[in-house]
DNA sequence: ATGAAAGCGCTAACAC
DNA sequence: GTGTTAGCGCTTTCAT
């Protein structure tokens, strides 16, 4: 790769000034049809691409968007990132990815680094904090805890209707006759978990079913094996239940394995629901009924709102809650 | 966020020149202990972070590394990206992610965009082509087709020993008594698939087992459902087999589902192996025996080699093949 | 409709 | 050990 051509070179070859080339590239008007054609031809012939560092330095905007995500290995987040990246690419923007591993100090470091790089905007997935230092940078929060309007600052937020998801899943179990439902969730600063749990409580409340202390598992982290062990312990302890409502597919998968290892059949003996409707749900046991989030729409909306803000417009609303659906598979149909 | 401070500001506040501040920041020597302390204090007090666009413009290096990947939704790739990003972050570099969706034109566009952005280096995962235009930019190819030394240009390549993986998986099946093994693979420009298949052929050849035309499924794309349908068709057609060697976990999962739907038990009636050892393998059916790639080591090595090249050093070798292991689960143990 | 020129924030060559 | 300064490639104001 010989040294990249500069705008100066293009200007020289096209017999115009660098200003004109810049105007043509950015379609800022004030050039004639012929000049445009000539410049574009030279650009094409020389395979010229503007230097983004220079552009970024000059304009403080880089056509790069930062995406901060807890863990890209989580299929749901991977899916969101994939869709975001496609939306960005369609619009000529790049995607800088930052895994936080749920560490808020790492998250802070990433945010710092992103602003230092003059990113055009940030999508912050499932963050704990508000960043007032980001108040002049376009930010869309996805999956983040609801806060009061005051506290939220300028950012816009998008989430799935997690409470409704928990509600739908639980209703599915109740409708199939379950009366002793194990709730399998994860602690930590993830407010989604809580919302899903609230949906569960609402559903059983409406059905006149009592919540049972013994039928609540709180894991420290989301993992197949952690869930498997926890459910196995419960079964070993002789605790009885006829349904499991898990707040993630991963933990549901662990539960299904534990059940199988204890000679219990899904869905004959125990019914199970998951959340996220990822590949795991399709492959797990007899097929896992799972709450489906509309990731494509979520990403599309996030991108649209972000670009609105980047253009200096203010989105109509500052909080969007997307509907979810239940993908019914065999784990809840005897 | 008020306008970010510049190096000039810091220099003024510290009572030194910008050059000195720059030297301190980059630890380029030629400053006194006291000056250093003073400058660092001012930097800390003012929460100063250097503008990366300016740095990038000046040095043509941005502390950003591009990662080109077919599809981040594939658990194996997501895992690689996660590890790469962690390695980069540890070294103070950021990670620009580009999904190609297996489209070579999109890949080309991304490469162009990455060079325009002055990335410091590129990790190219599972690409089809060689890019001679990248010859002066540090590039590490991961999972890419082997080429002759001539054709490969300057890039360094890393891959898992896919042939050995296919061999190990097949040996596992043979060792358990399988004699009619269905090979489930995917067409397309992915040379790994071919390598894994070659491992299969070697194993059955050594065991004196004939390869059967009827026991070969070539899917157009990797998906649970595609595999499920293909295997179901075979079973409906009355084709008999006692083992399945799949070149990915995803397809293996589909196969397991098809078997279950036809009343066949894994591992009693049919044994199954997958490849990649991802979550799916843990959760699928009775647990899927799967070939495990050392993703952490692969990412570590890729990063190390890339940084060597970025420092202008030439790695010892231009081709690394990493050993794989077999994670044995119940799908191959009756 | 076009050009000249300033300057974004930083680094590095050179001078002292 | 420290300062001065040119210039990376681009956009944009101002002049024409």
TrEMBL record, chains A, B:
Residues 5-59 form the HTH lacI-type domain. SMART domains: HTH_LACI. The keyword Transcription regulation applies. GO terms for molecular function: DNA binding. Keywords: DNA-binding, Repressor, Transcription, Transcription regulation. InterPro entries: HTH_LacI, LacI/GalR-like_sensor, Lambda_DNA-bd_dom_sf, Peripla_BP_I. It holds the Pfam family LacI. This is LacI family DNA-binding transcriptional regulator.
């Amino acid at each position: 790769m010989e040294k990249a051509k500069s705008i100066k070179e293009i200007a020289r070859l096209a017999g115009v000034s660098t200003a004109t080339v810049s105007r043509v590239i950015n379609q800022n008007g004030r050039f004639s049809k012929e000049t445009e054609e000539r410049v574009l031809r030279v650009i094409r012939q020389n395979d010229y691409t503007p230097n983004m560092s220079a552009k970024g330095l000059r304009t403080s905007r880089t056509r790069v968007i930062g995406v901060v995500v807890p863990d890209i290995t989580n299929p749901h987040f991977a899916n969101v990132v994939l869709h975001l990246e496609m939306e960005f690419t369609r619009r000529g923007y790049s995607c800088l990815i930052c895994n936080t591993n749920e560490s808020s100090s790492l998250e802070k470091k990433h945010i710092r680094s992103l602003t230092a790089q003059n990113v055009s905007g940030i999508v912050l997935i499932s963050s704990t904090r508000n960043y007032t230092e980001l108040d002049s940078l376009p930010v869309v929060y996805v999956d983040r805890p609801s806060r009061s309007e005051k506290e939220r600052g300028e950012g816009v937020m998008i989430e799935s209707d997690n409470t409704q998801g928990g509600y739908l899943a639980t209703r599915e179990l109740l409708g199939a006759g379950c009366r002793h439902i194990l709730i399998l969730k994860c602690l930590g600063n993830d407010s989604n978990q809580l919302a899903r749990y609230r949906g569960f409580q609402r559903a059983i409340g409406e059905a006149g079913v009592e919540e049972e202390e013994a039928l609540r598992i709180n894991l420290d982290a989301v993992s197949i094996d952690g869930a498997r062990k926890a459910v196995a312990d419960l079964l070993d302890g002789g605790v009885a239940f006829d349904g499991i409502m898990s707040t993630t597919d991963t933990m549901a998968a662990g539960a299904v394995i534990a059940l199988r290892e204890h000679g219990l059949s899904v869905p004959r003996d125990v019914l199970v629901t998951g959340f996220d409707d990822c590949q795991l749900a399709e492959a797990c046991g007899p097929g896992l009924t799972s709450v489906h989030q509309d990731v494509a729409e979520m990403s599309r909306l996030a991108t649209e709102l972000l670009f609105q803000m980047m253009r200096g417009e203010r989105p109509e609303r500052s909080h969007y809650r997307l509907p979810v659906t239940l993908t019914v598979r065999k784990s809840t149909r005897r």
